[in-house]
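Reply to thread "Modeling small-molecule complexes from scratch"

Following up on the discussion above, here's a worked example others can learn from. I took a protein sequence and the SMILES for flavin mononucleotide and predicted the complex. Inputs first:
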Amino acid sequence: MSTLKTPLCELLGIQYPILQAGMGGVAFGPLAAAVSQAGGMGTIAAISPTPQRVEQEIVLARSLTKKPICVDIGFPARAPKEVAEVKLDELPGPIRQLQLEVEAMGIKVRAVDDQAMSIDDAKAKLEICFRHKVEVVACALGTPKWAVDECHAHGVKVIGIVGSARHAQSAMRNGADVIVVQGTEGGGHTGDVGLITLLAEVLEFATVPVVAAGGIVKGAQIAGVLTQGAQGVWVGTRFINTLESSVGNNYKQSILEAGYDRTIRSLLFDGLYVRQIKNRFTEVWEGHDDEMLPYPLQRLAMGPVRFAAAAADMKDHQPLPAGQGSSIIRDILPAGEVLARLVSETIAALRAAQQSVQFS
Ligand SMILES: Cc1cc2nc3c(=O)[nH]c(=O)nc-3n(C[C@H](O)[C@H](O)[C@H](O)COP(=O)(O)O)c2cc1C
């Protein structure tokens, strides 16, 4: 069995410093369990699903592995109670257009119960984590002190996910045990600073382990960020193309087919930048940023068509969040195999560096 360890492994109770990222619609019980069982840290994405669904996925993961798991919860700073509903006849033009096209292909667009907007919802999910003794909670969209304190009171470790040095500082100030810094290369919500720079900046002041994210799909990249000072990696897109991820085959094929220039950061999804593969879904919004509704209205307005297209695995009309690393993903494998390959590639790259770089 290979050894690849950093102090992060001890802190989180895992064998390898490779964490599978929380990914809405992608990462549920089966994927999280497969990664944890293989020695990494598997994460259940719990931002949008109902608390009941989150509980089911935790129970499912627990039935598949006894190893630690992580649950990724959203703590939106702007979580307005007063936003009740967006009237479908008042949608911005591009969203209406998308909806017409989706319906013309026989897909029904219905109202959805997207939980991502409420702090009460986040609290309910935390309670579920505590009840099921989840070992690690990852905080997306902000790392509030009250949530960190509650986790610590229950013996749960907290990861703060950030895309800027300023947010890293506030997550640390609020008590996060680990900081994930996500470079702009990453899939999903992403900032505009590249990983190699963001990591260097955060490492200048970090007092807790820092984990690197964004574009990582190969062991040589992991060796690179470990050498830079990261204690682990948080890998998203590579784990979409696994047998256990919850998206359809069209999504996975789109990643296999993506060239280096196929991802774009678009506001269409919810008014915040989301890196995704270009398709009709992103094209319809191009040139329309001035019609953007303020967060979270855009998310609410997009919800029905977005969820309908994703449920039908429509290649051109569903959002396909994915990182720039898509262009070097060439297969769909069991998640445990992906993890094992990342570990062995990392070890090989670290060894190769010792051979090829002379220093004294
Ligand atoms: C499909 C997809 C969905 C995502 N959803 C979430 C999410 O629900 N919560 C979250 O914290 N981050 C989310 N992210 C960002 C990931 O947690 C992670 O930071 C990112 O995937 C890392 O970059 P990579 O995809 O290049 O590996 C998502 C990313 C992807 C690709």
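What I'd highlight from this example: The mean pLDDT is 94. The chain has 14 helices and eleven strands. Questions welcome below.
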